[in-house]
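A.,

Following up on our hallway conversation. Structure tokens first:
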């Protein structure tokens, strides 16, 4: 399996940024790490291997950017407002450096996003905020409410980065129509600590008449094995 390492200076973050890319060609998918995870964890924990067939056949090309959660949402040494600002800088880096690069490399006009655990938050948030750039969303064991990180602090930046809030109130026709064209899969399990958050997000999407799939796996929990079982099934659906 073709694997490429990239490192560059990310201007929005003011620091170096790293990423692994798997595959030579195909539909580009941005795969975010779990909470405070690194760009190589999806490889190390076997998530990439679970979809190697799609990569080797040239159907998909997976981009695994690094994560700065420890400097943003999980950085309790700074004020909540500063955590949000750091997250916004990360999002700008993903949009300008990672997504644009993936589109250039593959010749695709659009990309898919995916993630497990808090990586699913990054995928879902960026997809719903920028549905003109993304046409598929795969979440596995996702957590989507960032209020747990801001301790009562709340401003417009918090609101527009908290999907349960802004999606509940979304009425803008352009956004709704773009999101309705997106392939959306929310995967969770009956013993998953994220089960309630996924049910809640599914309810919000249904209230907006946004077609999606909520997949609740029996006999599984919040772990890599569950996600490795989910990922190839969901990608097969996305590629139909």
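Then the amino acids I'd put at each of the 240 positions:
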């Amino acid at each position: 399996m073709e694997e490429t390492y990239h490192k560059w200076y990310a201007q929005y973050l003011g620091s170096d940024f790293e990423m692994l890319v798997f595959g030579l060609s195909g539909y580009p998918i941005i795969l975010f790490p779990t909470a405070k995870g690194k760009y190589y964890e999806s490889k190390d924990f076997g998530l990439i291997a679970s979809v190697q067939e799609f990569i080797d056949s040239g159907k998909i090309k997976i981009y695994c950017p690094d994560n700065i959660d420890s400097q943003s949402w999980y950085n309790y040494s700074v004020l909540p407002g500063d955590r949000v600002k750091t997250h916004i800088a990360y999002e700008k880096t993903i949009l300008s450096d990672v997504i644009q690069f993936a589109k250039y490399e593959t010749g695709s006009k659009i990309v898919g996003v995916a993630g497990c655990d808090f990586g699913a938050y990054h995928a879902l948030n960026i997809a719903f905020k920028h549905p003109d750039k993304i046409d598929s969303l795969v979440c596995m064991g996702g957590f989507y409410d960032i209020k747990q990180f801001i301790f009562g602090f709340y401003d417009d930046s918090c609101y527009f980065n908290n999907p349960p809030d802004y999606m509940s109130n979304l009425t803008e026709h352009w956004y709704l129509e773009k999101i309705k064209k997106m392939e959306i899969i929310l995967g969770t399990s009956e013993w998953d600590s994220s089960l309630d958050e996924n049910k809640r997000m599914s309810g919000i999407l249904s209230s907006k008449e946004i077609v999606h799939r909520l997949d609740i796996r029996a006999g599984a929990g919040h772990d890599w094995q569950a996600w490795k079982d989910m990922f190839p099934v969901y990608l097969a659906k996305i590629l139909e």
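The chain has a mean pLDDT of 97. Curious whether your intuition agrees with the design.

B.
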